[in-house]
Amino acid sequence: MNNPVLHTFPLGFPWHTQDPFLFCVYHLDHFPKGNGEMGPDPELLRGRNIGNDFDPTQKWRMYHGNTIPGFPYHPHRGFETITVVNKGYCDHSDSLGAAGRFGEGDVQWMTAGRGVQHSEMFPLLHDDTDNPMELFQIWLNLPKASKFVDPHFKMLWHEDIPVVKENGAQIKVIAGDYKGTPALSPAPDSWAANPENEVAVWNILVEADTQFTLPKASIGTNRTLYFYEGSEIFIGDRKVNSKFGIALDPTQEVTLKVGEEKAHFLMLQGKPIGEPVAKYGPFVMNTQEEIQQAMEEYQLTQFGGWPWPYPDNVHDKDRGRFALYPDGSLVEKDS
Prior knowledge:
- This protein has 335 residues and is mainly β.
- The chain has one helix and 26 strands.
- Strands 1-20-17-22-15-12-11 form a seven-stranded antiparallel beta sheet, with no helix packed on it.
- A hairpin with a 2-residue loop joins β11 and β12 (169-175).
- Pfam families: Pirin (PF02678), Pirin_C (PF05726).
């Protein structure tokens, strides 16, 4: 059998991805206690580059937030965002009138399609203890035929997401099928909606001193395993340290031998779309002309405007997890 490892690479910011994925970032922030208004004590902000705070040497960052960490309103077109919040909370608001608070394992799936604005803020809800946050944001491309579909907002609540437990491993099946356990349905116009595209998003925890085997996929599928927390693993006789990504041969099973410290992984897999990609910030199309068109349309229409009082909109501090959909329907998870 050949070595299933095609190559490895260090995990930077953002992480390197393969078609059909465009982008993946991992946020791990040890946010302090809240100040009662869902932000950090203003004294802690002295000396920070407020509005553009991405300093990796700090324990936590404000990102583009001024008083509350996060990403105030900004546009997207031509792709999807999959936001996995393992710890902490994210407050979502968008130009469709949709909103939500999700976290502690929930996943939001948003199809930008022809255009949407949204904000993603990280409210510090606890004033008597720290507010740790762990979040992945994954950008999944849309094929040319779907770039102008209607925007769509979907919540995958952690109570409903399948988790497979086997031989000292836990596999959270966010997208795809793991050994016969299917994920919840993705957004309807997604590249992941067709099972033949073999899109998979799995968050995997393997206990220390454990051997775990990933099933193989079809030839032509791109698959990348991100080893983001732990010490070291072995694949055959090849040692891989944490904070490395691993491009894998899809046609082979992959056996991981985990050492003395448990290991955390994110798997991104899928058949490539195989179309030209033109990117400019939050717009992903097929040509530069389409990028220019997207910029002009956003300047004219603001993709529907902004129906919320603030660009960094957050929800009531005492509110639990919820989702308000564009049609006005409301799901309350914590009451």
